[in-house]
Amino acid sequence: MDADRRDRTAPGWWGRIAGAWAVAFAGLHFYWALGGSWGLSVSAGPLAEERPEWFVAVGLWGVGLLCLIGGVLGWLLAGPRPRGLAGRVVKVLGWCVCAVLLVRGIAVEGLLLTDTAGQEIAVSPEQRLWTLLLWNPWFLIGGLVFGLAAWKSGRVEGLSGGAA
Prior knowledge:
Layout: H1 2-33, H2 41-44, H3 46-50, H4 53-78, H5 84-114, H6 125-152
Helix pairs in contact: 1-4, 1-6, 4-5, 5-6
């Protein structure tokens, strides 16, 4: 019986983890948007010091808002899958977020490791190190947890119309 209970509740954990990942990233973007600087200079380079209005509005507030929406998506993926089109949309959105985060993490990692951009893009050794060791793995982890959440979404038996 305990194994059955664990099997019924375990799928929701991936959605909760994905939601927490997204909300944590939103918090970091809002901290930066409000003037915080820890970690920003090594990820955004000169934009962190100059802080043009478009960067603060789109790159910080806008991304923070998208991350909060990702938090809601994680919460939806954690619960019983809604019936019909709404359930399919939630699951597809989970897979889309997974794909975007994985592509971002893998592509930037590959570009930095192969030095494909060469001299055309000025990336300091500090930016390269932080991106390779922190930011890209962060995107990869986000992609994996959203993928697992989408995969497990709606598998909470007994609550979503499955066998009890």
